[in-house]
Amino acid sequence: MGSFITSWSLGWIAGTAWQLQQVQLWASSTYAGLGLCALCLLAWCAHVRHQVPVRMRWWVWCTAAACLAFAQTGWRACGYSAQALNPALEGQTLTVEGVVSHMPQRMDDSVRFRFDVSVAWGPTGNPVFLPPRVLLGWYGSQAGGEARALPADVRAGERWRFQVRLKAPHGHINPHGFDYELWLWEQGLQATGYVRTSAKDMAPQRLGATWGHPVERMRQATREAIDAQVADRASAGMVAALLIGDQAAIERANWDVFRATGVAHLMAISGLHITGLAWLAAWCMGWVWRYSAVWWTSVRPVSLWMPAPLAAHGFGLTVAVGYALFTGWGVPAQRTVWMLALVTGLTAYGKRWPWPQVWLCVCMVVLALDPWALLQAGFWLSFVAVGILFASGTQVSEVQALKENKPLRTGWRGVLPVLWRAAQSMGREQWLMSVCLSPLSLLLFHQVSVVGLAANLVAVPWVTLLVTPLCLLGVLWPPLWGWAADALHVLVLLLQVMATVSWAQWSASAPPGWAAGAALLGMLTWALQAPLWLRLYGVVLVLPALSWQPTRPSHGQFELLSADMGQGHAVLVRTAHHALLYDTGPRYSAETDAGQRVLVPLLRAWSERLDRVVISHQDSDHSGGAAAVLAMQGQAEVLTSMPAEHRLQTMRPMQRCEHGQSWTWDGVRFTVLHPHAQDYEKKAKPNALSCVLRITTPQSVSALLVGDIEAAQERALIRSGEPLDAHWLLVPHHGSATSSTTEFLRAVHPRVAVVQAGYRNRFGHPRADVMARYAELGVQVVQTTRCGASTWQSDQPETVHCERETQQRYWHHRL
User: Fold this and answer.
1) Residues 373, 377, 380, 386, CA torsion sign
2) Burial call 151-174: b when 16+ CB within 10 Å, e when fewer
3) CATH fit for domain 559-806, picks 3.40.190.10, 3.60.15.10, 3.40.50.300, 3.10.350.10
4) pLDDT tens digits, one per residue of 187-232
5) 87, 270, 530, 749 - which has most CB atoms within 10 Å?
6) Comparing C-alpha atoms, which of 756, 752, 698, 729 is closest to residue 553?
7) Peptide bond preceding 766 in cis form (omega within 30 of 0)
């Protein structure tokens, strides 16, 4: 039995991972045929099991499981992709009716929610087919010069009728970036859009409440009760995250502190929280079950019907399932529930499996239900952490919590030794987690918290023993949520002090696949109960991942990476030993921007140290991510045309970009062509003051970055007599009708032109007539909506590498 479980689990995990590498899906009949072959192979093995050697049976089971996992994942993906949004409906005003399926996320002037579509009509009133679930935003901010009213109070389980505009799920594809399209796919969201609320549109109509989605309704009611009880928004968000799993409620500044100090895992509903609650429930039920027959003779037959330990296990598991569902059923919660369920079942039958079988079996169950969880960072953090505790011989909480259900000895002589052993165990576990999970954190996030061990030694007992119980008990007496918020405020103040230390975090470059695999093997080797000389080999296996450095251009050459971040500009320029960032992308909302979401992770993954940042002008689609980038890159000089009174100018001294400025890095020449000093005195609009930068190699291969200059500035550049010819051109103003004049394009004569614009942006960039001008001149136009992030190298001026092509998987949107 043990051999079957191990081989089947390994095969299932391998088959799932294999299918997730597919670029395009096969026909659903192909997956069905593969699954049928796997079942036939199993039937054959069962029929001749006594004639087949054990080792061969092991491989047969593993192969059959891999094929079956591959088939079921692909077959489910085919069925899911068949429900995709019809491209002809993108941008159309549609009328939809359905039910709000999840707890909405409300911001200052907007609300986002998932909507289950029951029926939909097109612009002419004809019925249309839409994906069963979409992600909608209801915005109340200024849009197109028209003031909108604040969104109504949207509640889970309510039926609404809206007029909406939808588009296919289209995210940003960057090196080592977050795969938003995969996240939408896994959540079952096959379209995104917004509610139309202009005067010419039908007003949103609330059609009434339903009995659907009771868990989400309870979660929303609890969140509103927390907001009513805790005045401070930031503290209320943390309490909501700990109680109902609403991590979106935590403000960005607090997330930055938690990540810097390595305690972000405590702000999510982890296995530790669920197991602790399950243990408490099991202990209480065991105590009641044992003594109920003594106190109430009428229940004696019931108490004798089932042993007290089994009753305690069952009740603890029931509480764990209920709490995991209440908190959103995330991957760590799933892992905990299935592990508790497996341990409970084994205990009921008096069996015990070795830890690798328990670990692999639970991993297989999670992937059978949600195959795409394998690509989530939470999956790896949760399972690797538990696997390390298993391998090290530590009493893993999920296994032991429901096994030992003994009354505690009373009095100080009984309590103090227990507390001392608990403190020793916690210290050992935190040391083990800090050492063994550091390489994994570097692989997933390209950074590790140096102060994480000290921070966790304080935060883990503080949150687990004080804050979390207060949050749970607040359901019975809401004033306790205020106490929990105060306790969290004290913790955040301490963590902020730790986060301000200059060496609080350490970053490393993203290693290649072979180095990442060696690091994972090294972590396991270090955690094993083995001689020290063998465990030291684990350290050796981690060294390639820690010391890896990405390749850089050779002397006299440079590389351009045009980031994919939507409607905005951001181009990373790298030479042999220097780096420059031209523009910092857009600001998405009050909580996030391209700097925090795209550029900082990219720079961290490449261990890039910027020497200079050029912010071409003050428009938010060029300067929106500057605060996050400059906070990370404190040493970088800044060139900009922003006015002195701009809020970013208060962060650090900035130099005004002017015609004639130039410098040379590693044999590569950088020259500022625009604006002139007198242009600032004319008080021109921001676009007209865009910093224009030309980069040239000794071999006269050049690139031209022009920001949002318009026709007048293009003509001025032509009249200036400066050399404008360039092999690579950043398309002016995202391809708007005000730029890219024919005269300018002939003067530059680019081979490659890059358009950085958002998918289906409201400005219509790039314009079709503008793209026609580039086509007439035979220019290769690269659009981030089709290419993702693009990489161009001066020693290969005719070649552009598209990240969307490199990372292409079947769940990615194809135009």
Assistant:
1) negative
2) bbebbbbbbbbbbbbbbbbbbbbb
3) 3.60.15.10
4) 999 999 999 998 888 999 999 999 999 999 999 999 999 999 999 9
5) 270
6) 698
7) yes
